[in-house]
Design goal:
single chain, mainly beta, Immunoglobulin-like, five-stranded antiparallel sheet, 5 strands, 69% strand
Amino acid sequence: MENNSYIIQAKSSIEEVTIYNVLGEKMGQYNPFSNQCKINMSSFSSGIYFITCKTSNKLFNIKIVKP
């Protein structure tokens, strides 16, 4: 994480990115349809977040900690 932004890069087009807090509440959803997605997390409180990223052929999860 840099300057309250988190950048996701993939080899194929990212179709959907969803952010959840530690309680499982949806905090945001993006549909970038490109190989990169920049998420502005400046309005998010400090804590642990889980990002689900879906491409045309993969689904992966990322755990991040916002200081």
